């Protein structure tokens, strides 16, 4: 499943006073789906709080392979490292759904953290938890079968973004492409396509253009559990 989801997102872990200060210093913006908020390699000096919606964090390797580093939801902070230290962006952040965001300029966010050690501790905890979850993610990629990883991913997405539909199925309400899904489980688009074809034939899933309907959640649980 995707790495990088602290138990309590950064924004919601802050005090009311912290949030009021950040709203005062920040700029609210709305983003349409597929809009790039932060681009890999750029030098920009802000951090970004997802106030509503979902963004995708991705990075491109030397051979053009896209790795999805995580999906971030309402309350989560992204771009905090380059936004504070002035380095180049290590990943691209783009809107998956309509997104409302709060841009926090580094020249004000940095002093805010120095004035508020409690908020700085929350940021440190957020970064540490993401690093630990990324380590577990890479470990799973090396030890679990692709089928198991994909089944676990779909169950995870269904739990967080799923909508119950008539007949007992679950619709994953995120416009993820096959490339996105392949990147999330560190496999090739061709391998993912073969799995999707097999699962469609077995009536486990139904796919559309960037839509995924899970017909048999129980079958996916069995695959994820059995390392099939």
UniProtKB/TrEMBL annotation:
Domain named HTH crp-type: residues: 144-218
SUPFAM superfamilies associated with the record: cAMP-binding domain-like, Winged helix' DNA-binding domain
Domain Cyclic nucleotide-binding: 10-113
GO-annotated molecular function: DNA binding; DNA-binding transcription factor activity
Pfam family, one: cNMP_binding
GO cellular component terms, semicolon-separated: cytosol
Keywords: DNA-binding, Transcription, Transcription regulation
Coiled coil residues, start to end: none
PROSITE patterns recorded: CNMP_BINDING_3, HTH_CRP_2
The name this protein goes by in its record: Crp/Fnr family transcriptional regulator
Provenance organism: Winogradskya consettensis
Lineage, opening ranks: Bacteria, Bacillati, Actinomycetota, Actinomycetes, Micromonosporales
């Amino acid at each position: 499943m995707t790495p990088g989801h602290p138990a309590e997102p950064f924004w919601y872990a802050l005090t009311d006073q912290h949030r009021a200060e950040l709203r005062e210093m920040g700029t609210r913006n709305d983003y349409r789906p597929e809009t790039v908020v932060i681009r890999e390699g750029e030098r920009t000096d802000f951090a970004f709080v997802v106030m509503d919606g979902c963004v995708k964090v991705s990075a491109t390797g030397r051979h053009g392979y896209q790795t999805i580093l995580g999906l971030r939801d309402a309350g989560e902070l992204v771009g905090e490292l380059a936004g504070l230290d002035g380095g180049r962006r290590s990943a691209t952040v783009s809107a998956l759904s309509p997104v409302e965001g709060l841009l926090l300029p580094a020249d004000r966010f940095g002093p805010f953290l120095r004035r508020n050690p409690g908020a700085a501790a929350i940021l440190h905890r957020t970064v540490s938890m993401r690093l630990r979850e990324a380590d577990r993610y890479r470990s799973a990629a090396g030890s679990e079968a692709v089928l198991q990883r994909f089944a676990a991913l779909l169950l995870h997405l269904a739990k967080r973004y799923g909508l119950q539909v008539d007949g007992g199925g679950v619709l994953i309400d995120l416009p993820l492409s096959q490339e996105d899904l392949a990147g999330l489980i560190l496999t090739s688009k061709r391998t993912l396509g073969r799995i999707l074809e097999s699962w469609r034939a077995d009536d486990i899933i139904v796919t559309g253009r960037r839509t995924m309907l899970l017909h048999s959640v129980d079958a996916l649980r069995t695959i994820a559990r059995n390392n099939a």
